[in-house]
Amino acid sequence: MNSQEKFQEVDSVRILLYSLIFLLSVFGNLLIIVVLIANKRMRTVTNSFLLSLAVSDLMMAIFCMPFTLIPNLLEDFIFGAPMCKIVAYFMGISVSISTFSLVAIAIERYSAICNPLKSRAWQTRSHAYRVIAATWILSFIIMTPYPIFSTLVTFVKPDKSAGHMCRLEWPASQVEQSWYILLLFVLFFIPGVVMIIAYGLISRELYRGIQFELDQKKEARGLRNGLNGTMLSRSEEGDGCYIQVMKRPNAMEMSALTPSGSAQVDRPRSNTSEAKLMAKKRVIRMLIVIVAMFFICWMPLYSVNTWKAFDLRSAHRALSGAPISFIHLLSYTSACINPIIYCFMNKRFRKALLATFAGCLWPCCHLREPDDDINAASLSKFSYTTVSTMGPC
After folding, report:
1. Top CATH class, 3-390
2. Are 88 and 150 in contact (CB under 8 A)?
3. Which of 67, 266, 344, 379 is least surrounded, with the fewest CB atoms within 10 Å of its CB?
4. Is 130 exposed, middle or buried (0-12, 13-18, 19+ CB in 10 A)?
5. CA dist., res. 47 & res. 245, Å (int)
6. N- to C-terminal Cα distance for the chain?
7. Which residues does the UniProt record annotate as the domain G-protein coupled receptors family 1 profile (predicted)?
């Protein structure tokens, strides 16, 4: 296989992957937008942030993917100077809003889980709308250098024809370096640290809840065993006194004092407890996945941009062509991963999706899924149960 065939094969793979990620991103985020707008019951605080995230990810798919792949394949920006400025601006805005939305979701969940009583006073939809508006306005302001400094530059191709590329023409190299360091901290490092801390504290709280429930189960088993022994000893004494046990809730006392019905009462409670434990473990794993995917998707791109700002020649030699195209694709993958992690893994969202499209999926709307999991989009239902008893993070 000669070099030309290798390049064609790489281009085919790039086109296939970009098309797949583009379709998944557009279709997935459009579904989220339709479902959250059409269902009034889904208009919660967290879902308000998810709607903003879906809109920004849809913008990323539309303004980033085609305008990155096509010029890269043609080695020519064919869309003109005005589109160069518009596309660069909306690329930056979509990435910024998406990142800020992820941070807002992490902080909102941390407050709901770790400080439920305090957060209940201010976590309202109106507050969420103000935060969302602030993230959009801030993103539009931060990204103003893109339309100002984006320029369509003409160059000569190897075949002597004229080509064009959309690039940022900074007034000085120090300005460019400062800009990319700013983006590295504002859109990657600081958001990453906030998400790690928030989801780490949530995971710790859920882990405490798991340990608390396991201890409760051990105490309940020990209580039943001790109760049986006490009943035997007291029946032998025949004094007719009430059995003295540790003070427990009424439901526990009834199950302990009625051996004939204890199996029927304890089995549903045990099943519910096991379901909660498994659900909390799934949530902890999901939080780890969320943080890991953020770093996997965005670390290469921000590292490359910083490298290019300080040593453009070596970065261009090492990454031009397919490598930089795949690095961009990896960052754009977040636009199709976010809908899966934040919404489609949520049983309530799937039910709302079926209800929204009940006209064409009417047989499916009768399907009922057990609502026993604690999903990533509605973690706040822990806040007034087991987790809240463990105190603030």
Report:
1. mainly alpha
2. yes
3. 344
4. exposed
5. 46
6. 59
7. 28-342
pTM, rounded to two decimals: 0.76
Eight-state DSSP code of residue 258: -
For residue 123, what is the enclosing H or E element? none
SS3 208: helix
Tokens of 363: 């047989």
Tokens 């754009």 correspond to: 332
Contact 256, 242 (CB under 8 A): no
Kindly state the tokens that stand for 212.
């608390």
Q: At residue 265, what is the residue type?
A: V
Residues of the chain with pLDDT under 70: 1-7, 226-273, 359-393
| Closest to 91 measured CA to CA, from 134, 62, 120, 129 | 62
DSSP code per residue over 131-155 = HHHHHHHHHHHHTTHHHHHEEEEEE
Query: Per-residue pLDDT tens for 257-310?
Result: 344 444 444 555 555 667 777 777 777 788 888 889 999 999 999 999 889 888
CA angle 115, 121, 124 (to 5 degrees): 105
What was the pLDDT predicted at 295?
93
Helix (H) / strand (E) element for 339: namely helix 334-339
What distance in Å separates the CA atoms of residue 150 and residue 217, rounded to the nearest whole number?
63
Give the residue from 90, 96, 65 showing the smallest Cα distance to 147. 90
Q: Which residue has the tokens 């279709």?
A: 27
Measured distance CA(101)–CA(209) in Å, rounded: 27
Looking up tokens 């900074």 gives: 170
**Using an 8 Å Cβ cutoff, are 59 and 91 in contact?**
no
> Do 344 and 375 contact (CB within 8 A), yes or no?
no
pLDDT at 388: 34
Query: What would the two tokens of residue 177 be?
Result: 């370096």
Helix 250-257 / helix 259-310 crossing angle, nearest 10 deg: 130
Residue 177 dihedral angles phi and psi, to the nearest 5°: -65, -40
For residues 101 and 55, is the Cβ–Cβ distance under 8 A? no
